[in-house]
Amino acid sequence: MVTFKRFIGIGSLLTALLAISLSAGACVPEAPRHNNYLFSVFNRSLMSDRFTDATDKYWQQYLGNPDAQYRWDVCRDEVMKKARRQKDAELLGYCRSLNAYIGSDVNFNAWDYPTRQKIARRNAVLHNLLQTSKIYQGKRFRAQYNLLRMRALFGLKRYQEAMTFWTSTGQRMQPSVYRDMMRNLYAGCLWRTGRRDQAIEIYAAQQDYQSLKYCVRGYRSLAGIQKVYSTRPNSATLVYLVQDFVNNVQETMDVYELNSFPYADYNNTSKDHDEWMKETDAKKVTTTEANRFIDFARGVVAQGKTSVPCLWQTAIGCLEHQLRRYDKAKEDLAKAMKLAGTPRMKDNARAIYAANSVFSEQHNVTYDKWLTGEMRWLDAKSAEDRKSLTLYETDHYRDVEERMVYNGLVPMFMAAGRTNAALVLLSRMNDTAPDFSECNARAVNFETDDDTKGNWDYQGFYFDALSKTPLDSLKAYSAYLRKQPADSLEHYAWQQAYRDANYYNDLIGTRLLAQARFAEAIPYLEKVGLDFLNTQNIAPYAAQRDYNKERWMGKQRVALPEYPIDEKSTRLPRLTVNRKLQYCRDMVSLIQQYDLMRPSEERMRKAYKLATLWYQGSYEGDCWWMKQYGISTMQDSTAVGTEDFVAKAISLLGESVRSNDFTLREKSLYALAFIRHGDPWFFSGWDDKTQKYYDLDDLRLLPHSRQYKAMASLAAFWKENAPRVDNFVSTCDILKRFCKIQ
Asked: What's the confidence (pLDDT) of residue 266?
């Protein structure tokens, strides 16, 4: 089976602090594509270590710590300390033997090729453990020492002795995880002594799919499945092989037809697709072979030899779904739910039937009501699935829901004009995602030592969708959230959606501010509470930066903890006023004053003041948080659909620079030279044509750029007024470098 969850997890500290939106232009981790596998007839945790969790339960009970895992040194140390305190010599003896077995002398680093000396030391440890296990006479740890004995024999490659010990002793033991592990080792011995079919059946019966995957690697095709079925139609191996085949078809469709895999783009070639399939250990399956499997599986069901026809019929339906024959899939999956199979198989059929219905049914009130029931059922199954201690971040039933919602319902609702329904479903998925998933805004809150909370409210699919929603539609959606919807599916989503009015008023107000619609933004921003604002990750910046200070006169530093949960971090200041609201009020007042003025020195001073505020509120300013919720050093232009605050500042500075006031003119010239808008005054980077790297030490000038011309004007001003200029001009290293090449 190939990987179940294909995405890169939470990123850097900067992402944790700012919670940058996926649409903010930042360098962010690859977003999930919600195309996890639909077909799952066994819990995905069975693809990991089959027995460790069961053995850990003993140590968890002993320590009274449900999170204890003996594989970690800290847990082993705690066990040994407690055993010494209680003077439990028998337990101490067993722990020393167990620690020797799981230590580095026996279990080599997988990245290192062992030397002869290491191998000799390993064998010596195993011989010692073998003797220790033989002389143990107690009853308390008899099962554990028997397992240790088989482990030692297996490690020494004395497979026949190990098998004899299993048949004479192991299989007569009382049922326990230790007996199961001994049987697992017995299967390993069978495999290594040529009795591979017997080994495979044991691995399959034990649901050790990690081992089984290796053993049946040559059967991962229709021909392999047919070969196993022809001799053992009820082989447990077929459960794995059928699931693997169906999921390989989905992987093939996703990668080769939809170009859907991490970091995919339109320039991907067949080689890129092949490399991804190899990386995920998936097998490419042609449409022809998929159709041949469907025909074969129909024959299996018709023959009646299989005890689990539900498995085969569901595979047929899932493949029909992948091949976009949705009506046919509906028919096959409905039949599958009525056939014999394990509870997991029947649940699998029902889940895929629900996912397929998104494409096979008419979306009306009746369907929405039925689908609501199915999604509630998926929620319940998801909660059951997550009880496994070895699960990945999400479970199978959550994956099915995500595929239904993100890749089916939301695009359909958006296309049909049901914007509110689409958004509320996204919000519901956002807030019910498992902790530390890619999209749960409230489950992954972190605490700073001043008791403020950071959150992920401003990144992810829901925030992206809100950011792209037209303002009028966003206002309508905000109003929609205040009242329970009548539609059953929308009501189901609405109950679990994020409905804090502060969030939406702030978002709408910020969108209006970014469009320079300051007066319209004020009523929305007035409704946002300070307690809410202090939960935002931009709060430390908003609390410590003043938009009235000229950015070109220096960057305003912000006190931030080294890590969001660093106990030694400084106490962060809290907002006492809504800075965005203040900014909008100031901008409305200043613009009105400026517009009423006739050309004059006073108007020029007002222009400079306005330029300061426009620039500080831009993505280049200290107060970038006015217009957006995250920032990146990669951002080099204003966001689409927003006012260009930098251009506004340049225009106003173009007026103030004509002042007769020496200081005002000096500051304006300096500001115009400081601002980079468009091309800078010199090229920085690698030039393929010249095969050279350019920077301040090796300049390649761009005389056509606005900044170059502004630098030239400032240089001329300095030259003409050298005795009078302020220190910020005369001590500017960049200006001095510019003057050297004039």
From this structure: 63
Please give the biggest Cα pair distance in the chain: 105
CA 277: distance to chain centroid? 21
- Per-residue confidence (pLDDT) for residue 450, from 0 to 100: 40
Bridge-partner residues for 694, per DSSP? 685
SS3 for 371-382 is: HHHHHHHHHHHH
Determine the pLDDT at residue 559. Answer: 83
Ranges under pLDDT 70 in the chain: 1-32, 109-110, 260-266, 388-394, 431-455, 561-570
Q: What pLDDT score was predicted for residue 112?
A: 73
For residues 630 and 18, the answer to whether their CB atoms sit within 8 Å is yes
Whole-number pLDDT of residue 495: 95
Question: Is residue 456 within 8 Å of 12, Cβ to Cβ?
Answer: no
Task: Express as a percent the part of the chain with pLDDT over 90.
Answer: 70
Q: What's the pLDDT at 31?
A: 52
Within 8 A by CB and 6+ apart from 325, the residues are none
Task: Give the up-direction half-sphere exposure of residue 143: CA atoms within 13 A in the CB hemisphere.
Answer: 15
Number of H helices, E strands in the chain: 35, 4
Q: What's the CA gap between 487 and 494, in Å, rounded?
A: 10
Integer Cα distance of 319 and 293 in angstroms = 9
Cα separation values, 261 from 8, 34, 352, 504, 675, Å: 12, 10, 21, 33, 40
Per-residue pLDDT tens for 582-617? 999 999 999 999 999 999 999 999 999 999 999 999
What is the predicted pLDDT for the residue at 689? 87
- Cα separation, 498 vs 677, in Å, equals 38
Give the span between the Cα atoms of 459 and 444, in whole angstroms: 12
Strand partners for 686: 693
Contact 430, 401 (CB under 8 A): no
Please give the pLDDT value at position 326.
97
**The tokens of 328 are what?**
């046919």
**Per-residue model confidence as pLDDT tens digits over 177-198:** 999 999 999 999 999 999 999 9
Q: Return d(Cα 275, Cα 286) in angstroms, integer.
A: 17
Domain range list for the chain = 678-741
- Among 669, 653, 564, CA closest to 611: 653
100: burial class by Cβ within 10 Å (0-12, 13-18, 19+)?
Answer: middle
In the block, residue with structure tokens 């320039």: 267
Query: Quick one: pLDDT at residue 4?
Result: 27
pLDDT of residue 312: 99
The answer to whether residues 360 and 330 touch, using CB atoms and an 8 Å cutoff, is: yes
Q: How far is CA 19 from CA 16, 215, 439, 453, 630, in A?
A: 5, 44, 11, 12, 7
Return d(Cα 41, Cα 317) in angstroms, integer: 14
CB 507, CB 525: distance < 8 Å: no
The first and second tokens of residue 477, run together, are 């959606």
* Six-digit token string for 336: 């599958």
Tokens of 341: 């199979």
Cβ(645)–Cβ(686) below 8 Å:
no
Q: How far apart are CA 357 and CA 408, in angstroms?
A: 10
